[in-house]
Amino acid sequence: MSDVRLKTALLSVSDKSDLVGLAETLNSLGVHMMSTGGTFKQLSDAGLDVQEVSDYTGFPEMMDGRVKTLHPKVHGGLLGRRGMDDSVMAEHDIQGIDLLVVNLYPFEETVAKDPSNTPEIIENIDIGGPAMLRSAAKNFESVAVVVDPSDYADLVEELNRTGGSLSAETRFKLAVKAFEMVARYDAAIANHLSSLTSSDSYSDSLTVQFKRQQSLRYGENPHQSAAFYVEQNPPAGSISSATQHQGKELSYNNIADTDAALQCVQSFDEPACVIVKHANPCGVAQSADAMQAYDRAFKTDPTSAFGGIIAFNREVDEKLASEITERQFSEVIAAPAFTESALGVFKGKKNVRILQVTDADGSSALTVDYKRVAGGLLVQDADIPLLDQENLRVVTKREPSDKEYQDLMFAWTVSKYVKSNAIVYAKDLMTIGVGAGQMARVTSAIIAGIKAGNEGLEVRGSVMASDAFFPFRDSIDAAAEEGITAIVQPGGSMRDQEVIDAADEAGMTMVFTGMRHFRH
Q1: 7, 16, 248, 278: which one is catalytic?
Q2: For the whole model, what pTM was predicted?
Q3: Catalytic site residue 319?
Q4: Domain locations along the chain
């Protein structure tokens, strides 16, 4: 394929960002422009020479704009094979269209604004736009198609450099992007409309699209290939929207562990630090500032913290950066901000990955969770709710003190991010021991105590959180021997009374949440 010199362009966009600048370039290169509706008005108001599509086709826009470009003179101009269909195009007065600039009605935005407003949603299903995109993309040998305003700058640069031509490589790349856009758009429509016919909130079919952000050196293990794909609009505060300031490329395990660390640390309003190793928090603390939070999180399990992922919900300054680099080796350090002097400190550890993660906001939080299984996909609501103190139900004779309540809420929050079966010991808003991923809950409790003992941490006076109910009293007895004074757990076991009695016998206080936090 050879370069194509642009002679005629059709522009019809919903998102009019940077449109006039592109059109001015086309105008300066002598490209004849055609347009529709609001796009035509904006270009005309800018003083540009543009022809209405209705003048070209001889048919007016009709049905409140539903029919504008569905015409043989439009699609013939996009689909016509140059050098093969020339006589047919001439016979029917079809002008070849060399460039199509189209983006679509904001269907997804309309659904997000009000999912119940079906009439408005239906009107925001674009018909003519996807049809033109498919026609132009199919004929990429002769036509260039642009769907994303972020591509305008590169387009303008190439047009100015070549005097108005676009290369075959550019046209093919743009065609692929157009087909991807149409696929995602149609999937969004199908998913939403299918959900309206379903008996619950889940659609009868599910089509999702993610964009490759980077290829990875390998997956969980060196013999596995891997890539990282992200959503079209990744949420703020996520690993998918992070900016990497320095360090080696993120690995598969780096991404997974950083995601776990960020989700945990963003659950706290006060300054907090989370250190994650192999998908589990090995140290978590909430303190007056980020430095204190890091110091206390590290003390939970310095052995496991080596080579871990460190996440903060506050800015990292020079003093904190120096403390981290002097104290431990870390794979990733993630925070909402870094001072310039902190970044200067980290430059001395060039392989450490420094990620700036914008503050999360409630509107962009993870709402749906996916898990791949062989031959299928599990879909669920994200485990977002965190309990307020008012929702706790005291089931023992003794009420928790105010301090115990604070530590219980802290430990319960951490337990949500520990692999099941999860047991968390905490005191003074700091993890004392974490037991994760055991087949028996009592084993997780024993491991939490061993972890604390290995680091010389005093368990006596700590609280314990369990992500699910205790099926037997053995974990309570083990906790009592360690000196645990308060327990938070979901409740719901057929032996709840036996477990409550064990707590009462030990003088413990126990609260039920009515909510469990399995994490597999």
Answers
A1: 278
A2: 0.83
A3: no
A4: 4-197, 235-364, 389-512
